[in-house]
Amino acid sequence: MSGMGRATAEAPANIAFIKYWGTRDPEATLPYNPSISMTLSECVSRCTIERREGAVGEDEVLFRPRGGDLAPAPAGFAAGVRHHLAALSKWAGAPGPFRVTTANNFPTGAGIASSASGFAALALAFTGLVGRQVSPRELSVLARRSGSGSAARSALGGYVEWPAGDDEGEGYAVELAAAERWELHDLVAVVDAGRKGVSSRGGHEAAPSSPYFQARLELLPERLEIVREAIAARSLADLGPVVEEEAIDLHLVAMSSRPPIFYWQPATLAVLAAVRELRSDGISVWATIDAGPNVHLICEPPSVEPVAARIGALPEVQELIRDRVGAGPRLVEEHVS
Ligand code: PMV
Question: Cα–Cα distance between 196 and 264 in angstroms, integer?
Fold first, then answer.
């Protein structure tokens, strides 16, 4: 993969149980609070990087959305990739310009962590290009330097915690448990596959202006402990309620920020109502929502089919993506073309 002037990596999205919401140090992408997530296996970004030999000027950034054609990347993503390339190039002492080609197999910018997977894939592909082997910890730091903090978590597989970190060098995620320890599923009820109106970056900036921001931070030490213990004990009964409270609180903070940010749509509430109905029918399924309208349904293997049948039949649900906990990013031979 290295030495051929081209390297490719595949990295999964992740879904946070305890959310990262609010950036303490935007320059270094350090959060106000620790977050905990599950790395997925099906929703992935694949990224190929090569040096534009003999070229001068800008990095070229191409993107292929799910079901679409390869084209120049949308401006926001292209700017993020160039920013990330500057950090990676400095780290490796390897000058550009580069050509980066990213493909996603799931809807982009709709609260399914496409920036986490995209930037974790870019970081790993870059290490392949320059022929440097890195530990998961180093990869996590490199992914975080993209500016998408959740990418620090997509650098690892399984169940992952990203501590708040006291300084730049401490900003890496660690594994809490391997994927094989607990087979949790994430069924993503897609109610709107379009790009969200406000980026998570905008949300992070606005978060401290919410009168509830501080109140949520005060609840977190206890929530974090419950989630760590629930993962260790493989207890969905303990994990689920906290995951759902966290999702509601993230959006409560977003909706009460100045200016307010609404990611939810009427269809989001319809899915949440159906989740409560499923639970009253004895099916253990719990909802969480990132910075978008789509709802992630967390459950164990016996509940997957009943949940898919009920949620997939809702008129508000355009598509149900079936995902589950996964092993994390890897270098691959097949380039994006
Ligand atoms: O990493 P960012 O800047 O894309 O922010 C991610 C924010 C959430 O997805 C809403 C929460 C999280 O921890 O993944």
Answer: 10
